Amino acid sequence: MEPSDDQRLADEWAAALGEDPSAPSIDVDEVMAAQLDELQDTSAPITDDERRKLDTILDIPVTISMEVGRSQISIRNLLQLNQGSVVELERLAGESLDVLVNGTLIAHGEVVVVNDKFGIRLTDVISQTERIKKLR
User: In whole numbers, what is the pLDDT of the chain averaged over residues?
Assistant: First the structure.
């Protein structure tokens, strides 16, 4: 008896995953489809007044900056800095950078290079509640 296409495919996957193909397999005809509820949008639509208010703030410019680290030095040491000087930062090598918007921490990320330009890939975004707590 020739194995079905489904069984042959299952055997190929089992072999690729390093599983024992002689182990009992699931009969595809016996598997039942999961019954899922339809997703519904429960949010209220935005009114024209709310949209105008939102459009007003969307065009406000903000300053976004990435902070590699910080260091405190005396004015004497600051005045001695020149080309080639090295300033040690408190952050460890390989640690994520801080992403600040108008001086407020909003995320952490890592440096990437895209088309010969530096960028930052966000690895962790601070929740809105945490940001509000820091403002107080």
Answer: 80
